[in-house]
Design goal:
Blueprint lengths: L30 H4 L3 E5 L16 E8 L2 H11 L10 E6 L9 E3 L5 E3 L4 E5 L8 H10 L8 E7 L5 H18 L7 H4 L3 H4 L2 E9 L4 E8 L8
Parallel strand pairs: 1-2, 1-6, 2-3, 6-7
Antiparallel strand pairs: 4-5, 7-9, 8-9
Amino acid sequence: MTPAGDKEKRPIQEDAQQEDDSKSPQLPNNTGSIFPPQPQHSPSLCTGRNFKYYKDDQLSSLTFTDRNEGILTQAKSKFAEYADQFKKTFVEFKQANVDHVHTLTKEDSNGRRHQQQFDTVVDTFGLCSCNDPEQALISLADACKPSEKSRILLLEHGRSHYEWLNRILDTNVDKHVRRWGCWWNRDLMELFEREKVKEKLEIVKVYRWHLGTTCYIVAKPKSSSSSSS
């Protein structure tokens, strides 16, 4: 039990945030209904534990990136287990930092290279380990196509609703960073209040679990929502 006054005051966007500590975090299986088969990008790939959650009939192409070449090599090997699942999908692996995914390029039919953009960008537990999470969010926004349907799906972890838990995270963060390279006490929602991020992104929905430390955030590029705001 914790005192009621120990719960953080936090801004709630009308019709934007929902919180439910009673359920485990699961990405809703509705991407296909929002987006017919279209290009998707997954930065901070890690070793490919999420491959099974991607549906071939919801994708036209799938680009996996990670900053670590060794991790990419492991992920490619693991992907062999799922190759039959993606026979109709163009799949590629590229080395890139999550805060520079907007610099990815691809070659067109005429041999010219141009920026590679996506209908959906999915990041799972990447903001806790990158050097500049603010720039990462901006980069994810810039990697999206300029469309009302473009979305950024973030499954992340960071600070809690509760100060007693935040004190534990803060006290042990240095040890945790040294062991795992993860800043587990980052204030994820505060990132969306920063001016440079607010210029680029708008939150659509937020779900939080595990005393607020785990977040599933659906966002969209600001340029695609200006007409509806």
